[in-house]
Amino acid sequence: MATRPDTSSQRSGAPLRWGIVGAGVLVLTLLFFADKTNLEPTKPTQLNAGEVVSGPSQTTGLPALAPDPQLDGWISQLSDAKDEEKSRLLDSIVVALQARNRFAYAADYAFEAAELDRSFEKRLRAGVLSQQATELSYVASDTAMASKYGSRAVELLGPLVESDPNNEEALLHYGLALVVTGKQPMNGILTIRKVLELNPDNVEAGYRLGTFSIQTGQYDKAAQRFLHVLEVAPDHYPAMYQLAVVKSRQGDVPGSLQLLEQVVAGSKDSELTLSAREMINSIQ
Questions:
Q1: What count of Cα atoms within 13 Å lies in the side-chain half-sphere of residue 107?
Q2: Which of 58, 189, 197, 238 could join 34 in a cystine, given CB atoms 3.0 to 4.6 angstroms apart?
């Protein structure tokens, strides 16, 4: 049974939607060598039984949700709903929370839905949302919550990758979860690289590998990644911003400023736009 959340609201840490949670010097070293090798990913990680905390009833420490009569009504109906109706309610709750970028709450309800319906699609949704939750600032800054959502993502997505090794979405988020949790960071980066082997135009995989290349100081490699992302998706403003960062670090201030001005003019992400403005002021 899901507890009814409180009524105040907080922001979800937008900058981490276009960045990647740092995993420390060891992880960066592993990523550096992984990006220079032709190693193959190892078998998906399996966690010990009972390691993953389940269900919305176990959610603690999350910023409270703003009041929403429809969402609150669905949540209140869960306790008395039978399986089919409960599954429908959970799906509605997950969609509503996902639309608000409340990935941690959405992941908890998606996990409960996946316990009722063990289909590939429901487990994939729960795993992806769990991985996305790890990138929320209030989750990343809380060791227990970061471990909970990261471990759950690994446990859910690992078997899916094993059963369908060509599923780009499962591979991408499984790889990201391995990096963030620090369980198998090298395997994580290799798993994300496999996404690009399957589909060189996968924008999210290219963007993430570009951010990893920045972290390891491989600016030429990062620039190549972001340039290709922008060829496929010209309005990918996070990639545009990161390419501006690369150009600035390479000494190309005019090129960096041009990209940052495009971000300010076109991006709908207020925090990304603010970061671009701040960077413009710092390098002019």
A1: 30
A2: 189
Least confident of 29-38, 61-70, 272-281: 29-38
Instruction: From 35, 52, 46, 175, select the one nearest 108 (Cα to Cα).
Output: 52
- Residue where the block lists tokens 């701040």: 278
CATH (one of 3.40.1000.70, 1.20.1050.10, 1.25.40.10, 1.10.150.530) for 200-284: 1.25.40.10
Residue 87 makes CB contacts below 8 A (sequence gap 6+) with 113, 116, 117
Candidates 122, 143, 124, 125; CA nearest to 134 is 143
Which residue in 156, 190, 248, 228 sits closest to 30, CA to CA? 190
- Map residue 121 onto helix, strand or coil: helix
**Nearest alpha-carbon partner for 161 in 117, 131, 201, 135:** 131
The answer to whether 157 and 172 are in contact (CB under 8 A) is no
Tell me, what amino acid is at 116?
L
Domain residue spans of the chain = 1-199, 200-284
Dihedral sign, CA of 218, 220, 221, 224?
A: positive
* Cβ atoms 159, 120 nearer than 8 A: no
Q: Give the pLDDT band of residue 118 (cuts 50, 70, 90).
A: very high
Please tell me what DSSP assigns to residue 217.
T
Mean pLDDT, the chain, integer: 85
Cα 217-189-218 angle, rounded to 5 deg: 15
pLDDT at 6: 36
Residue indicated by tokens 């319906």: 117
